[in-house]
Amino acid sequence: MDMKRRTLLKVIVLGDSGVGKTSLMNQYVYKRFSQQYKATIGADFVTKEVQIDDKLVTLQIWDTAGQERFHSLGAAFYRGADCCVLVYDVNVLKTFETLDNWREEFLKQADPGVPETFPFIVVGNKIDVDGGNSRVVSEKKAKEWCVSRGNIPYFETSAKEDYSIDEAFLCVAKTALVNE
Ligand code: GTP
Ligand code: MG
């Protein structure tokens, strides 16, 4: 029998508060965007089916809280992740500088077999703001960061304009599938 096997891939989205993690997921899954900021508390997931070649995979995407006081996820939460998406805001330097902390936190908690090859994806969000005039982290600088940490794929997005989000999550799905 040639039954298609269903694959569930666990994806965890991390990054500072306000960078647009929830907005990216809402745009990707529900095609909607809200200007209003509502802090995520704890963690919650959405699912999205993605076709990759002849395989139908289900992404289980976990949104997390960037605010320290809401961020209390134990190792059990991180374990079994197939991919980790690190999000920062290209207009706020601090959110880029903390990427290392998020990455290390993830590796410490998830404890993957081979940390050097665990699939991360980096997303620089809010490229629409002020027509790009208020950005403080250049694409070059972000890409260098990614290259020096094991060639992490890099995407620049706008959750507001729905720019490059499908591409980013397709990459997430493909990378996670390889890791699974
Ligand atoms: P926490 O839940 O606290 O971790 O924050 P978050 O990372 O989930 O941020 P959220 O998605 O709630 O977005 C924060 C604010 O930025 C909201 O007011 C959004 O409307 C806004 N925002 C998110 N993405 C974009 C974007 O691409 N462009 C613009 N202009 N605003 C955005
Ligand atoms: Mg949120």
UniProtKB/TrEMBL annotation:
- Alphabetic keyword roster: GTP-binding, Lipoprotein, Membrane, Methylation, Nucleotide-binding, Prenylation, Protein transport, Transport
Q: Name one GO biological process term.
A: protein transport
| Cellular compartment(s) | Endomembrane system
One annotated Gene Ontology cellular component of this protein: endomembrane system
* Membrane topology term: Lipid-anchor
GO MF terms here are: GTP binding; GTPase activity
- Name residues in a coiled coil: none
* Assigned protein family: Belongs to the small GTPase superfamily. Rab family.
| This protein's name | Ras-related protein Rab7
What part of the entire protein does this chain span? 1 to 180 of 212
